[in-house]
Design goal:
Length: 230
């Protein structure tokens, strides 16, 4: 399916975590047409520039894109992106002035909730929590369990939202050893055998061992929805 490129203006900015310089940015599409997406998807932010001096195409136009998970549920023309100040592209977004415009292409991605697969386990490592937040902002699926992993307590993004969600079993973990995370998940699944689906998102080093654990427990690949950021 062909995806449109939309123009959106910055309408809000909130610092979520000072150590990692993580911001929640709010945007509204320029023509205020509804922006439809499935919670858990992402958009690609598009910029136009020229190749730098020293490049064999120096001075020629080029287009750059970076993918960012949508942090919000669908809400008319409004959407949110969550990102930290790492790399020139993200720094550019973090430094936008209010009402500045960006172009986004999308939505894209298949890290979305499957119908009829609750209760489920959700694991978000660091920025991998963002698409899970999008899913939960639309509606916390019944009997859900969320394991959130971050380097510091302040980097447990949206922790107050998750802790206050009715019916959500929330297990935040700060700088845990991988073996500890795997042991806790195995213990959890042993106590709650009704959990038969998992949604895992984050860097490969954090998420792949959990995926391997689930496979070792006899889970089929169709039971595991998996997205990694590297």
């Amino acid at each position: 399916m062909d995806r449109p490129t939309l123009t959106a203006r910055l309408t809000g900015r909130r610092l979520l975590a000072a150590p990692s310089q993580t911001f929640l940015l709010s945007f509204t599409t320029e023509d205020e047409a509804d922006f439809d997406f499935v919670p858990g998807q992402f958009v690609s932010v598009v910029t136009d520039s020229t190749y730098p001096d020293g490049h064999n195409k120096a001075g020629q136009p080029r287009q750059e894109t970076r993918a960012y998970s949508l942090a919000s549920a669908p809400r008319g023309p409004h959407f949110e992106l969550c990102l930290n100040r790492v790399g020139a592209f993200s720094e550019m977004l973090c430094d936008l002035a209010m009402e500045d415009m960006i172009r986004v292409h999308g939505p894209h991605g298949t890290f979305t909730r499957r119908d009829g697969q609750a209760p489920a386990l959700y694991v978000g490592a660091d920025a991998g929590i963002v698409p899970i937040r999008s899913i939960f902002r639309a509606a916390v699926p019944p009997h859900s369990t969320l394991v959130q992993i971050a380097a510091t307590r302040e980097d447990l993004l949206f922790r107050d939202e998750f802790a206050a969600s009715p019916g959500l079993r929330y297990l935040p973990m700060v700088a845990p050893e991988a073996a500890f995370v795997e042991a806790q998940i195995q213990k959890l699944l042993s106590a709650h055998t009704e959990i038969q689906t998992a949604y895992l998102c984050g860097l490969n080093a954090s998420i792949s061992p959990i995926r391997d654990l689930l496979k070792s427990l006899g889970w089929d690949r169709k039971q595991i929805v998996f997205e990694r950021y590297d």
